[in-house]
């Protein structure tokens, strides 16, 4: 195909017509679906369909925006107004995926960020910025899927660790604190809760610990599990 043919295709895809609308919506479904698929595998509150809908919706907003600008050329129309509302308005949906559990654990931040970036991706697709949308979509997929193990390795190898511990009795907490000092573990933050085991007079601690020497988090959990009075322990 010669340069003229590519030019004609480029013009068609960047105008608002049936072909360009179809291409943009299909691309939004593909990009949003890929992002949501990874979240769905992890059983997150926003998954395959949610991401796809966000991406399609923001794409449709930008197509509508472009249509308005092309149709009402004699009016003072801001071509970025509708897109700006999507970027700020998507926050309500992202906030709904962020929860704080009874163990003081924050979940849903990656899902919320993913929804926001899916909306931004949809805006790029909707306005016909295909190269930016495809390159950006690839970068997002790499960050969300292929860099997940890197993120885990960074977290599990750091000197800070958050843990949830259940004791069978509150009297064991004092000896546990001494156990931490003996093993060069410093308490950065502490939250006391009622234990979740039914019928037991248990007490739970949510602890943020700092190790004075580099230790893998799995080793720290194994070490602490030998402390007296512990019924349950896990990293959060």
Q: Percent of residues in helical segments?
A: 55-70%
Count the beta strands. Answer: 6
Low-confidence stretches: none
Main β sheet profile = 4 strands, antiparallel
The outline comes out as: elongated
* Number of spatially distinct domains: 2
Tally of individual helices: 10
Percent strand: 15-25%
What is the succession of H and E elements?
A: HHHHHEEHHHEHEEHE
N-to-C CA distance: 57 Å
Spatial strand sequence of the major β-sheet: 4-5-3-6
Secondary structure category: alpha+beta
Q: What is the arithmetic mean of pLDDT? A: 81
Question: What is the gyration radius calculated from CA atoms?
Answer: 25 Å
Structure description:
The protein is an alpha+beta fold and 236 residues long. The chain has two domains: 3-146, no CATH class; 158-235, Alpha-Beta Plaits, CATH 3.30.70.260. The protein is built from ten helices and six strands, in the order αααααββαααβαββαβ. The chain has helices at 3-14, 18-41, 48-71, 81-89, 91-95, 109-126, 130-146, 148-157, 172-182, 217-224, and strands at 99-100, 106-107, 160-167, 185-194, 203-211, 230-235. It has a four-stranded antiparallel sheet with strand order 4-5-3-6, with helices on one face. It has a two-stranded antiparallel sheet with strand order 1-2. Helix 2 (18-41) packs antiparallel against helix 3 (48-71), helix 2 runs antiparallel to helix 6 (109-126) and helix 3 (48-71) packs antiparallel against helix 4 (81-89). It is elongated, with a radius of gyration of 25 Å. The protein starts with a helix and ends with a strand. 25% of the residues are buried.
